[in-house]
Structures are given as C-alpha cells and as structure tokens.
Amino acid sequence: MSLILDNIQHITSYYQSEGFWLVKVIPIVREISEDAVALTYQIDEGPKVVIKGIEIEGNNSIPAANIMKVMKTKKRWLFSFLTRSGIYKKDQIAEDLERIRRLYHSRGYLYVAISEPEIRLSTDKKKLYLKISLSEGDQYTIGDIKIQGNTIYSTEELFEYVTVSTGEIFNRSALRTDIDRIIDKYMEKGYARADVNPTMDINVKEKAAYITLSVSEGGIFRIGRIDVAGNTKTRDKVIRREMRLDEGDIFNKNLIKRSYQRISNLNYFETVDINPIPRYKDHLIDMEIRVKEKMTGMLSFGGGYSSVDKLMVMGEISQSNLFGKGYQIRLKADFSARRTNYNLSLKDPWFMDRPISASIGVYNDSTEYPNYDKKATGGYIGFGREFSEYVGGKISYNVEEANITDVSDDASIIIKEQEGRKLTSSISPSIWKDTRNNYLDPTSGRRTAFYSTVAGLGGDNYFYRAVIDSASYYPAFWKTTFSLRGRIGYAAGYNDRKLPLYERFYVGGINTIRGLGFGEGGPRNENDEKIGGDLEAILNAELIFPISQEAGLKGVLFFDYGGAFDTDHDISGSDLRSTAGFGARWMSPMGPIRLEWGFNLDPKDDEKSSRVEFSIGGLF
Predict the structure, then answer these.
(1) CATH fold of 141-216, please?
(2) Which end of the chain is more exposed for a tag (fewer CB within 10 A), N or C?
(3) For the chain, what is the mean pLDDT?
(4) Is the pLDDT of residue 150 over 80?
(5) What is the per-residue pLDDT across 166-199, written as a single tens digit (0 to 9) for each?
(6) How is the chain split among helix, strand and coil, in percent rounded to 5?
(7) Which residues face 269 on adjacent strands?
(8) Any bridge partners for residue 364, and if so which?
(9) H or E segment and range at residue 540
(10) What CATH number was assigned to the domain covering residues 504-620?
(11) Which residue, among 532, 598, 597, 606, has the nearest Cα to 560 in the 3D structure?
C-alpha cells in the first residue's frame, strides 16, 4: 500500500509542476486471481492553474518588487511559454522562502520570520494568487570581528580578504563571500580541507553581532588520479590536455576553475563537471571530469543586405571535433546577386600532439562592384601557440591572385590603376590576450588582439595592414552584461605601390557599424563610389540582458560610433558616424543567432534610416 501511495504522490507532484494544481489521482485495485491484482490509476487532471498574482505582506524596509526579484516563482507573463514560469511548485516555493530569508539577512534583519504562502484560487479555479506574510524584526549591525586558529597566514594577511567592518549593517552574503575568499587563499596553496567557521555573539541590547572566524587549515593535498567519463566521441587526451593540473601537482582551486573554463570553451559538450574526490588518509584528491557530448557538426545560414551585395545568403558546414580529436574543418559559402565566395579550411589545435595549432585553407571569391569586377583565388597556412595561460599568437603565410576586370569607362583613377591580374604574397603575424570566462557568450573578462599583414614577399602588391581590437565585458545589474569594444586599423602601400582596393577598410554592417550599409561609414571618391579608407576607428557599446535564461535568449541595446577615413584628406568630426539600435541573440542548437535593427542617427541623402540584419553561426 505504501508503494501505491508513493506513486500517487509522484504523479500528483508531476501534474502540479505542469500547472494542474487540482489534479486527483485515484487508485483502483481489481482482483484478478487469488495472488494477483490489476492496479489502475484514474486521473482527473482538472483545469490548468497559473499564478496571476503574488502579494508580499509585512515588508517595511524592502520593497515587494525587490523581494519578488529574488524569487524563482513568477506571475504568468507574455514569455512564460519559453521560461515555463507562472506555475506553482512546492519545492520551488520552499527555495524562494529561503532566498527571501537570505535577502533580509543581507540587510541586517537576523530574526526575520516568513510564513508559508497563503494560496487563493479564483472562482473558475484557473488562476492562483499567493500571499507571503513576514515579520522583519530589528536590524543589526556588526560588532567586533576576530580571526583565530590561523597559523599558515597571519591575521593581518587574512584581514585583507575581509570587506565587512565594525559598525556596518550586518550582511550575511558579504560575510559568506569574505569567508570564501579566505578559503580560496588556502586552497591556492593546496589546503583543500581548509574551512572557516563563523560564530556570532548576538547582543540584543546593542543590536549588534560580534563575529569570530575560526580557521581550520588542514594539510596540503595533491592531485591523485584524473579520470574522464561521459565522452563517447571525444578522445580522453583532448580533454586532459586542457587541464591545468597534472597528477601529483599540489591542489589549486583556481587552476581547477580555469580547467573547467578551458574544457567548456572547447564547445564540444553540453555540460562539464569537475568533481573532486578526496582521499583523506593519503592527502590526495582524485579528479573526475564528467562531460556530456553535444553535436559539434553545424549547418548554419545567415543573411543580410549591403549596398554592394544587395540581398546576401551565407551558408556554412563545419565540424569542430572531427574524429573526436579536436580537428576543425569548415566549408563556407556566400551567395548574392553580385558575389560568390567559397572557403575551405582545416585546423589542428594540437599539431603532432604538441601545444601548437596548425591551419590551412583555400578560398575563391568573385565580386561584381558597380564599376569593376574582382576575382580572387588564394590560400594560407599558419601556426600558432599559447605563450602563457591567457596569451597566444599566430603567424600565417598567405598567397592570393586577384584579377580586376570589366572596369567602367567612367570609373575613378584609383580603380583604373588597379585593373589587371596581381599576386599578393604576405605574412600575417598576430598576438592576443583573452581572459573571457566564455568564448561564445562572455559575461566578464577581456580579449585584446593585434593583427597585422605585410605583403611584398614576392608578388605584385606591397602594403602593410595593422588592427588593434579590444573587447571588454563587465557584469552589471540584474544579470546584465555591459560590453565595450574598440578597433583601430591602419593600412598603406610602400615601395611606390598603392594600397589595393580590396585591402582597404569598409565600415558598415552587422560586424562593424550596424545601421549602415557596406562602405557607407567610409570615404567616397569624386564619382560618389564607396572606396573604403586606409584608417578605421570603431567603438561599439552594448548592454546585453537576459530574456529567457532557460531558452538561452538574450536582448541587446547598442550604440556604434566611428568610421573609415582616407588619410590623404583632412579628417573631421563630421566623418564619424553614429548609430543605435536593439536586437536579440539566441544560443540555438544550430549555433548563435543574431537579429539586430540599427538606426542611422544622421543618414545621408542616399542612405536608409535603418537596417535589419541577421546572421547565424557567430556572435559579435
């Protein structure tokens, strides 16, 4: 009988988690023979019940809106079909009450009392209203703070990690953060069992909490076995080579965290877990790396509009973990009324099992510009490596044959001078520093890179090109992220050669200044042709905010500023272009999707006031 009752509870809980709050489950037992019965569960689902209102009562110091922000239980709203919110769940409500308690403890209300929610159904029994009552109590401050039990580090050293101070409003969250900082300091040196136990002496008369932090240091631990589990396709070595700790090394929590970031950034797995398994007697900690594979092959497409290409369609077939060895292969094609481009590339991030990347690629590009056509065929081979944990570099050799044909009679001199077939032989060294917490969807950190190209190792073209690109990400309020990206580039010919048209900077579009068409953010010649510039300066500011964390959907507000310039002419502030807009980004199973609407804040006579662009397969 107890098993039947357990099953009834499980079925009821499942239905209630889906919104069927009034579900009834009735077991019907029918005897078949002397030693056998038939069991049937008769289910009356009832109507689906959604939360239409949440009321907070008794809050005097914290607004109800702030309290409801910390709760996972929400009212039904427009996007509830994506977030699965607006449903009453008992387990979630219990967690919400604890979140409210922690919120009050972070404001000094140590003796806040919170009632179980009062539930009221509408007359049609399809809507549910919640009321949570609480009694805040008195607000407490922090008295004296002491640290004891420490021998490895002095008390003065540990107090550097304590941010709370005497006289402040008591904040349990801040105190917990300080304790974690002290524990992390010990764990950086191998003290894996280090712990800090806070005790409080509450003085009700003074309304103060006197805090003693008792440190338990333990001994130094080393890394034992490192086991990999869950990988059905990816080879063990592909995962192990991203670990920043080897067997026998001294335990270091920061290096474990960095190992997690590196394995996650491979983008081969849906989930990554690194589980420490201590062996206390041996002073060892075994590490279990458990992963869940995901599809690493991708078929993506995108589209957009530019003044040169008109309507564009872009497609890509790629595999980022070929044979489970981490090889990356990509076939990309762009098609439009004026352009056809094919690009095939292959990369081995650990060439010959060494921490050196090797890449090779070939491409073919045909573009019809208003006053000329360009056909180019080329290829490259490159090698790169990491110089330190966050710094890496690459150098590649590139060769391209470009043919400028069908030049119009009324084309400008700069175009006519470049008619014919020319060979470019160049090297492209680059270096970068990347501290982003996630390569696809960063919320903190920075990536700064320097790219350069020097052409003239034989061939017909002699030029140099350099770009500095830096993007920073800052966690902001309400789980938003503020992003600031700046780019400066310069290119010029040398040896009495001019900079080729196709090496100039063309600003405008979803990856430079949104809201402008291709080349509209740069200079024009006497025939009003967009000829690009030999200098570019671009600033992009973004506020990225979550729409649905469960669905991986985010919104973005942006402001873009800058342009391309011709240094042979005077540069003025009027040459700088500004746009603003909004968009959405979705981390879909096919890859990142961008949809953005940019508004030209100062359109010229032949420019549109706004542009909608989208792409699949890459973020900004």
Answers:
(1) Ubiquitin-like (UB roll) (3.10.20)
(2) N
(3) 89
(4) yes
(5) 999 999 999 999 999 999 999 999 999 999 999 9
(6) 15, 50, 35
(7) 293
(8) 342, 377
(9) strand 535-548
(10) 2.40.160.50
(11) 598
Domains of the chain, by residue range, sit at: 2-135, 141-216, 222-293, 504-620
- Asked whether the beta carbons of 493 and 481 are under 8 A apart, the reply is no
Q: Can you tell me the distance from the alpha carbon of 464 to that of 456, in angstroms, rounded to the nearest whole number?
A: 9
Domain 222-293 falls under CATH 3.10.20.310:
yes
List, in order, residues 6 or more apart from 466 with CB less than 8 Å away: 450, 451, 452, 453, 489, 490, 491
pLDDT at residue 604 in the model: 86
Residue 577: which residues within 8 A CB-CB, separation 6 or more?
Answer: 507, 513, 516, 520, 521, 560, 561, 562, 563, 600, 602
Task: Tell me the mean pLDDT in the region 225-240.
Answer: 95
Q: What is the pLDDT of residue 306?
A: 45
From the DSSP assignment, how many helices (H) and strands (E) are in the chain?
9, 28
Of the candidates 144, 167, 147, 168, the residue with the CA atom closest to the CA atom of residue 156 = 147
Rg (the chain; Cα; Å): 31
- Residue 252 amino acid letter: N
Q: Which two tokens stand for residue 440?
A: 């696809």
How many Å apart are CA 131 and CA 120, to the nearest integer?
Answer: 8
| From 10-24, 346-360, 428-442, the region with the lowest mean pLDDT | 10-24
CB 302 within 8 A of CB 314: yes
Q: Do domains 2-135 and 141-216 have the same CATH topology?
A: yes
* pLDDT digits 0-9 by tens, 64-112: 999 998 998 888 776 665 566 777 777 888 899 999 999 999 999 999 9
CA 270 to chain CA mean position, Å: 14
Domain 2-135 -> CATH class: alpha beta
297, β-bridge pairs: 319
pTM greater than 0.85: no
Please state, in angstroms and rounded to a whole number, the distance separating the CA atoms of residues 545 and 553: 9
Q: Looking at residue 79, what is its pLDDT?
A: 63
Alpha helix positions (H), 235-354? 236-240, 253-265
How far is 252 from 210, CA to CA, in rounded Å?
32
Helix (H) or strand (E) holding 16: helix 2-17
Sorted by sequence, the CB contacts under 8 Å of residue 167 that are 6+ apart come out as 141, 142
Amino acid at 153: Y
Contact 559, 493 (CB under 8 A): no
Task: Write down the pLDDT at residue 83.
Answer: 60
21: confidence class by pLDDT, cuts 50, 70, 90:
low
State the amino acid at position 285 in one-letter form.
I
Tokens of 189: 């040196």
Compute the distance between CA of residue 231 and CA of residue 271 in angstroms, rounded to an integer. 11
Half-sphere exposure of 506 (CA within 13 A, CB side): 16
Q: Which helix (H) or strand (E) holds 367?
A: strand 356-369
